Amino acid sequence: MKRRLTVAATALLLALAPGCAAERPPADSGGWDETGEVTYWMWDANQLPAYQRCADDFEARNPDVDIAIEQVGWDYYWGRLLTAFVANSAPDVFVDHTSKYGDYTTRGLIEPLDDLIARDGPDLAQYVEGTGDLWVGDDGRRYGLPKDFDAVGLFYNAAMAREAGITPEQMQDLTWNPQDGGTYGDVLARLTVDRNGVRGDEPGFDPRNVETYGLGIDYPPGGGSGQTQWSFLTATLGWSHTDKPLWGTRFNYDDPRFQETVAWWRSLIDKGYMPPVEQSVGTELSQLMQAGRVALVSEGSWNISTFAKLGGIELATAPTPIGPQGHRAAMTNSLADSIAAGSPNKGAAWKWVRYLASPECQEMVARGGVVVPAIASVVPTAEATIGAHGLDITPFTRQLHEGTAFPFPAAHHAADVDSIMESAMERVMAGSADPSSLTAANEQVNALFTQG
Q1: CA spacing 20 to 30 A to 10: which of 86, 289, 406, 448?
Q2: Position 129 in a domain
Q3: Where does the record locate the signal sequence feature (predicted)?
Q4: Domain boundary among 374, 402, 426
C-alpha cells in the first residue's frame, strides 16, 4: 500500500483542471440508474480471488447488475487511472489510496458519499476505529467506505534468531532509541553475520563482507511517509509528519528527532547491519529473506500472505519496538473504493461500493487470508485465517487494540512531496548527503502549500 506516482502520472493529474468531471446529480435524486455493468479496478492480484467471490455473490443478489473487475499492478495502476480520467473513460469504481484521493477531490473526479450514506447506510460505527476518518477529505466530505486496514510489524527468520540465541519473548518486547538503537539495534547486530561466520556484535566482524544482514532495506527508502521503513521509529519520539494528523499543510522533516532517526538508520549501512542501497534496488525483501541474505525486515501486514508462502524458511512475526516515550507505534492505513464522478452508472456503482464495505463481502475477504478487513467484527476471522497459514498477524493488529497506531499522513500534493523526499532520502542513504540536508528538502515540501 505504498510506492509512488510517476512523473508522467503527476503531469496528467495536473492537466485535470477542477471542474472537468461530469456534472454530479444530487445524491438523493431518482436519476441514477441502478442497473447495468459496473467496471471495477483494483491493483492487488492476491486479493482478486476474494473480490471475485464478492462480485459473484453481489450479482446473485442483484441480477440486473454485472461487475467487470480489472486488476492492474500497482506500478502501472495510477498512471493508467489518470490517463483514463483524461480520456473520460475511468472505471465506475476503483480501489483508492489515502495518499491519492485528495488530488482527485480538488479536481472533482470522485463522488462524495455523505448523502448516499445518510440515505442508505451503512453504520460507520462498525468499522475499526480511525479507518473511517481517513476517508473524510479536508472539505469535510466523505469519499470512501473503508474496506480493510493495515499496520507495520517485523518479519524475522526464526531459525537464525534461535541460532543467535535470541528468544521469541525477546522479539516481542524490543526497545529502540536513536542513540544506541536499544535492544532492537542489538538484535540487528547479532543477526548480522559476515562471510567468516563472525557476528556483527563480535570482535573481528567485517562490515564489507557480509553474508547475512540483520535488517533488509525496502527501496526506495521511504519517500515522504516512510510507512514501512522508519515511521514506526520516528513516531515513538513524538514526531509527526505534519502539523495535523490528516490534511496538514506544514511538514516536519526539519525536526531534529526525524533527522536523528534517519542518521541512526543510515548508520546501520556503515556498520554492515543493513545492505547498501545499491544492493537492494530491484529486489523484493521477501526474496532476500528466502535467500538468507537478510534476517529481519519491517513490512506491512498486507504482505503477510507473501511471506507465509515462502518455502524453505521458518519465519515469525514481532511487533515494532518500544521507543523512548514508552510505547511502540505503527502507521496504519485503510483502502476504500471510490466512485468516479464521471461514471454514467453511479446508481449501480453505489450499490457495489456499499456491498464491498458490508460484513458479507468483508467476511469473504477475511476468509481469503490476504488482508484484514475494516469491519471490527470480522477482524478475528482474518486473524484466524492468516494464522492458519503459518504466521501470526496479532503483532500487527495489536497496534490498533493498544492504541499505538497512527494514520497515514493524508495531504494534498502527495505525489510532489514523495518525489522531493524520495530524492533527498536516496542521497542520504547512499551516503552522498548528510541527514541535515533534509531541512532544505522540507523547505521545498512546505513551499508546495504556499504557492498560489
Answers
A1: 406
A2: yes
A3: 1-21
A4: 374
For 124, the domain range is: 30-147+335-374
Strands 294-300 and 210-215, bridge-based pairing: parallel
Distance CA 75, CA 85 (A): 17
pTM, rounded to two decimals: 0.89
157 and 208 in a single domain? The answer is yes
Q: Which helix (H) or strand (E) holds 42?
A: strand 36-42
- For helices 359-368 and 379-388, what crossing angle results, to 10°? 20
In this structure, what CATH number is given to the domain that contains residue 131? 3.40.190.10
* pLDDT average, residue stretch 332-342: 95
Cα–Cα distance measured from residue 296 to residue 294, given in angstroms and rounded to the nearest whole number: 6
What DSSP line would sit under 298-346, residue for residue?
A: EEEGGGHHHHHT-SS--EEEEPPPB-TTS---EEEB--EEEEBTT-S-H
Task: Say whether pLDDT at 30 is over 90.
Answer: no
Q: What's 127's DSSP letter?
A: B
Whether 9 has a pLDDT exceeding 50, the answer reads no
User: Helix 438-447 to helix 256-271 angle, to the nearest 10 degrees?
Assistant: 130
